[in-house]
Write a structure and sequence with these properties.
Pfam families: EVE. This is Putative RNA-binding protein with PUA-like domain. This protein is α+β, with helices and mostly antiparallel strands. It has one domain: ph1033 like domains (ph1033 like fold, Roll). Helix content is about 25%, strand content about 30%. The chain contains five helices and eight strands, in the order E-H-E-H-E-E-E-E-E-H-H-E-H. The strands form two sheets. It has a six-stranded mixed β-sheet with strand order 2-7-4-3-1-8. A two-stranded antiparallel ribbon has the order 5-6. It binds a DNA duplex through loops.
Length: about 140
DNA sequence: GCCAACGTTGGC
DNA sequence: GCCAACGTTGGC
């Protein structure tokens, strides 16, 4: 089982939208970046991810589960782009802000800090546990 | 709102 | 295959 981070602008697609989709989940479509796509190709059903709000909020706000493997992105006819479906699992008790992540030495290598523009990122098991602890949330 | 970082595109 | 131009993202 692996861990990931999904970044979204809440004004476009936010945690509340994700929760509203329930257990059926929703395509994480619209990714037009090869690195991000390749990570989605590596995902397996049952993998967990952080749901991160970019821009104004800049915080991890929830945990999602990958519920399909990578498939064609229905938002384009371009066969290059694929995506997985994810569903909301639980919200963070306390959102973990980018500021808090940057303030934690053990998280200084997180992709969130190092490559801030990448919208789908891998998270290590150690990072996963630390961020969950910061958010008072069950891993 | 600005700007740095970075990915993509297209001309050569 | 290189690189300049351009567009986009996201933190500040």
């Amino acid at each position: 089982m692996r861990y990931w981070l999904f970044k979204s602008e809440p004004s476009v697609w936010g945690w509340d939208d994700q929760v509203a989709k329930g257990n059926a989940g929703e395509e994480w479509d619209g990714v037009r970046n090869y690195q991000a796509r390749n990570f989605m190709r590596e995902m397996a059903v049952g993998d967990l991810g952080f749901f991160y709000h970019s821009q104004k909020e800049k915080a991890v706000v929830g945990i999602v589960e990958v519920c399909t493997s990578a498939h064609a992105d229905s938002s384009t006819d371009d066969q290059r782009w694929e995506c997985v479906d994810i569903r909301a699992v639980r919200p963070f008790v306390l959102p973990v802000t980018l500021e808090a992540v940057k303030a934690e030495d053990r998280l200084s290598d997180m992709a969130l800090v190092r490559s801030s523009r990448l919208s789908v990122q891998p998270v290590t098991e150690a990072e996963w546990k630390i961020v969950c602890a910061l958010g008072k949330t069950e891993p």
